[in-house]
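S1.2 Input.
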Amino acid sequence: MSENISYASVKGINQVADKVFRVYLALETASKPHIAGQYLLLKILDDWSAFSIANAPLEGESMIELHVRVKEATDEDPLYRLLTGESSVIQIKYPLGACCYQGANDLLLVAGGTGFSQIKAILEARYAGASSEDKNTVLVWLGKTASDLYLSDWAESFAKRHAALRYCPLIIDHEQLSPADFKQKFLSVAQSNNFQIETALAYLAGSPPMVKLLAEHLASIGYLRSQLKSDVFDLNL
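S1.3 Output.
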């Protein structure tokens, strides 16, 4: 992947929850633009760590948004130190990933925690332009606590601006979400939006255990494996 190595600088960082930061990077080297749904690798000491890109690409702009959860918001944490330190340039591999947004009439987006970063980019790409308003979308964001839904206000505001988008925040551990509960919560939202499960794609973003469990729940209500999109499947995580 050496051909994808680029350099970027941190242009802004905002704390949005305990140990979660919204980070803005500016590309310092020329690179092909990313596609909504892709990720990058960030070099931390001698290792590379993956982070979903949280913004849709904009023509002529080189800014990249990330949502980063650190282990500790102190200089003892190498990731926190890298993002907040005085080093002007950081090394990345960009863009990466095959779980990219594909246009679809109906779309289910499911995020867990900071998995919302990938989903946010897809939302922005989906609703860009005047022809987007008739595209039915259901957004489900799961978190163990309210703070895990760290941009819930943003999601609510975005949904209010787009009548075909339904936002369903769920404060629950995914392990405690039974197939029956998921079916009830999802179908009640989908049916109110004339959502067509038979043809809808579903993007799942979060930890591998969450994605695999929700894939089973979706299969129980009629989703085929070919309708499910996730980096977890593409990378065999």
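S1.4 Remarks. The radius of gyration is 18 Å.
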